[in-house]
Design a protein that fits this description.
By secondary structure, the protein is α+β, with helices and mostly antiparallel strands. It has two helices and eight strands, in the order ββββαββββα.
Length: about 140
Amino acid sequence: MNELQIVNEDSSFYICFHDIKPYANGTLQFRSLLDMRTTIFNVHVDCNLYIHDLKQWRDDLLAMLQWGYQEVVFAPLGEFLSITLRLESDDSISVYGNISNTSLPQSTLEFYNTLSRDDVQSLYEQLDSLLLVHNMR
C-alpha cells in the first residue's frame, strides 16, 4: 500500500497521494506525488508528508465517522496544500481546499466537491493501512 485516494462516487473528483515512500534518512517523513483530477483540470505535484500529520488526519477522520466531528482539515506542515472535509446536515461530506504553486506567484487552485460517508471510510482505512505497513500506528 503506497497510495491514498479520495474519490467521489461517480469518479468525477479524484485526489491521489501515490508513490508514498519514507525518506531513507530515518526521519518520520514521507515523500509523495499528488495527483488531482476533476472534469475541468488535472494537477500533479511533489509533496512531503510528516507522519504526525498523517496520524492526526486518520484520527480526525475516525472522529468524524464515529462521533460526528463537523470538520477535518489536512494541511501538511511546509506544504501549500489544504484539504477540508465538512460533515453536512444531509450526512454528505463536502471536500474543499486549495493547492498553491510556489514557483508562480498568486497561482492558487481551489476545489470543491461532495463525498459520501463510504468515500471517507475508505480514506480512513487507507490511511490506517499505510501507517500499519510502515509500523507508524
